[in-house]
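2024-03-11 09:14:02 INFO queue: dequeued item Protoporphyrinogen oxidase, len=469
2024-03-11 09:14:02 INFO validating residues
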Amino acid sequence: MSTIVLGGGLSGLSAAYYLKKMLPKVPITLLEASDRIGGWVRSNKVDDCIFEEGPRTIRPRGSPAAFNTLELIDELGLANEIVPILSNHPAAKNRMIFVNGKLHSLPNSLISLFKKQEPFSKPLIRYLLNDLTAPKKNVKDEPIYDFVNRRFGSEFADYLISALICGICAGNAKEISVNFLMKNLFQYEQQYGNITKGMLKNLFDSNKVKPKGLALKAKKEKWSVYSFKNGLETLPKALENKLLDHKVEIYVNTTCKEIDLPCIDDNGLVFLADGRILNAFHVISTVSSQCLAKVVHKEHPQLADLLNKIKCVTVGVVNLKYNKRLITKDGFGFLVPPNEKLPILGVTYDSCCFPNGDNTVLTVMMGGAWFKDLFGDYPDKQDLLKTAKEQLKTTLGITDEPINFKVSIHQNCIPQYTVGHTETVEKINAYIKNNKLSLSLCGSSYYGVGINDVILSAKNAVNDLMEDV
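2024-03-11 09:14:37 INFO prediction written
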């Protein structure tokens, strides 16, 4: 009899880690359907560089979730493996958008807010000041595009926020919930009438979590983002090794077919596709909500319906390496607002972020909310590669052929927190509680899609479980 963890991505590994840390004697079994551990985090060493197929950097500041990840990294003994990008580095200062056939740098200093920069028709401070007079709208939730358009204007929403949402979750800002991805700003408006007043009132909030340890080091040294010497996959690999050292059973190529969820007063059963049946006194699900819906539908159709409301999008990732320097202005890369109607979400300049000789390494991201319309249900990787090279020619003028490349198609990899997401998650949790199910939920489907978010969601799930033990 053991606690079953569904999913071997960062959230699943973290959940097993925190559970073993708090209850060392509790048997844990982690099940992963694919042939590897690590989820969407995958670092491939190609020649003398690293192709990141999924996330490539982590933010070290600004939230308890960021501090928690650094604490975990310290516990795993990975502090010396970190490669930070400092705030004065071009990759931290230069972030761009592609609009009207040209690359435009986004404002990166206080002074730049007072200067008019294309594609904006006026200085950014003018848009920000609009918040002081924009009327408050009493709503529970709304699309993030509508919220930003109301408070800051259409250019701010079209060029800045829409592009940002493409970068965060490959989503459409006209569908994504403001009450999740910009929850604090939305609540400032609802509580104080405008964002500016809310920010001023909370400027000296004494309840803010203060950084310590590695997080304090990141603050003092002014890290902007960070990765590891051998790529971001260093983190899930370290977690996997730690779990194996502590006798956690980890199974790959193991598909869960159905779950008879355990109740508080009874144990449950996990039916595997290979015919095995596992006994469970608790299940921690870190897989996507739609995957979980499939295996609980028979016993809990109402729960499955709620889980299916959280949709995911597919993202194509094309990594390319060139044997000479091709970027004329160093930076993190650029995003493409949906209004530009290009078949890519953006491009990261990996060799600018983490230089490696005279090579140029780029990653082109495409699809997301528009993947099916662009590439159909059964996309060909060669089509994605062709599109990536065409778009690099259009946006950066690159006509050279890459000396190496990797094309990845991540099916249903990023959940979309559309309007009403918070309410849907509340209903899911209420169903679990009302039916006394021994089920914990964490991972990217519920409480945030970033690396910091999914790790903290795993820790919170385990903490909540400890309260019930």
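2024-03-11 09:14:37 INFO annotate: The chain has a mean pLDDT of 94.
2024-03-11 09:14:38 INFO item closed
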